[in-house]
Structure formats: structure tokens, C-alpha cells
Amino acid sequence: MRKMLSQVVPFLLLAAMPLTSFAAVTDLFKLDGTKNEVKFINREVFMRQVDNEWQVIDPRQTLDQGDVLVTLFTATTLSTGAELTNSGWLPGDSNGYLLGYAAQTVQDVSLLQVAGKGFSFIAIDLGNVDVDPFGVLNSGEQVAVFNSSTEWVVNGADLSVADSVQQSLANAVLWEKFMDGEGGSANFAQTSGVVTDNGSVFVSAQYGLTTAGESGLTFVPTDWLNTGAKTDVAGRANADLNDDFGSISPWMFDSQDPLVFAAVPEPATLAMWGGFLAIGAVVALRRRQK
Question: What's the whole-model pTM score?
Fold first, then answer.
């Protein structure tokens, strides 16, 4: 893990990269206010800063406020429109890959005994990151989504979490960022872990977040999670221990989840196109008059 701090600066540069102008997965999103659903698979670890060095920790043994859940994810399918029609996109085709990175700070940990069930229930409240171990996110952010021409790298001999993040995002171009906003219960991230007698862990999480405006889209707030509160984007995740952890993978957990949202071009963009159309109409009228 000693490589990690030396690899922060490249990520700070990566996070500031402009939006892509080439064919990308995000070009396939429906921008008519109907639903987009992206399904992801994820790799996750909890990390703690000890003597200015970020270390992987086992939440079955220890978990405190200020620890950080780091997640790397890649999209597998994209469905769009009111009927959620499969877009036909496949990872690695001409639109490339859709990758993501998240860092969420543990804000509270509660241990609840489940009567008569033989296990303890751990409720973990997650919030915007204060210090991202790898510098991809700024303070106050949680998630970044990228278009990329290359796939993620999560397995390999002697691969560290830092190596995995750096190599996965080496060709990534930022699309959008997400965070907790001022909407109270409409903006949150919560993970619930179940620890059984044999020490295994199953995680179930849900989140509703606000967008940062990097994509230039206007997101349509919707009660995606049926909680009575609207949010820009939302999702649910189910996770378990990663069978490859400790052998060929540095990631302790693997999970899968959908992310859902609806968006339209921002008003400024629509106004710009309206101006172009008006100019075109004037030019066409003058030509007809001549």
C-alpha cells in the first residue's frame, strides 16, 4: 500500500479532464426525460488512513467513523426509455466502456442484534468523502462516472488497490459526478451488512444522490427508491465477499447494482440550438426572397 500516496497527483489531473467528444456509452442515454437504467458490477474495499498511509481494513474486525469505502465499477448493460428497452450496447464495442469510481466516508456505525436469527446487523451510514485515498474525487463528492476506451483492471499478480484504480482509469474521460446534496432524506447513501456465525459478510445498500452538473444535463428528480423523497439518481446494490480477494485481486467485496436516472439537455443547450435554428430560418428566408 506504500504506492498509494505517490499516485494521488495523476488522479487529480484525471478528475479535471473535459467531457468526451468521441463515440461513448453516454451517447446512448435517452435524454427525453424517460428512464435510463445502467447495470454495474463493482469491486469494493474499506480503507483507513494510518500514519499518512491508506490501508485496506477488514470491516468484520474493525470499522470506525472516518474510514472510507472505495468502489470501482464497470457497466454491463444499458436499458432506456419508458419500457426500459435494451440498448444493444456491449462493453468494448464502438462506444467503449462505462466505468466509475466512488469513495464514501463512514459517518456512523450501528450494531443491532437480530433476535432469534443468530446474526448481528451492522448499519453503516455513508456520506461525501472528506479525503479521497486516490484523489479522484474532491472533498464533498461521492461518485464519478467515466467513458473509457479500455476496460477496468481488477485482477493481477501483486496488483494493489492503487494499481487497480490507476490502470482502470488511465484512459477515462469524466462524464458526471454525484454527491449528497441539501435535500435531506432525498440524498443519502446507506449500507447494511449482515455478519453470520462463519464470519462471512453480505451487504445490501441503497443510495439517492444529487448530480454535480459536469455532464451539462438537467436531471429530473424522481422518487426512484419509493421513499417519498425525490433524487437525481438512485440505485441499489447487493454485495458479498470476493472469492479472488487475497489471491489475484486486492478487492475484498464484489457487488452488482443498477443506477437509474432521467435527464434532458440543460436549458442553455436548448436555447443555443434554438438560436441556431432561428439563424438558419432567417438565412433560408433570405435565400427564398432572392
Answer: 0.82
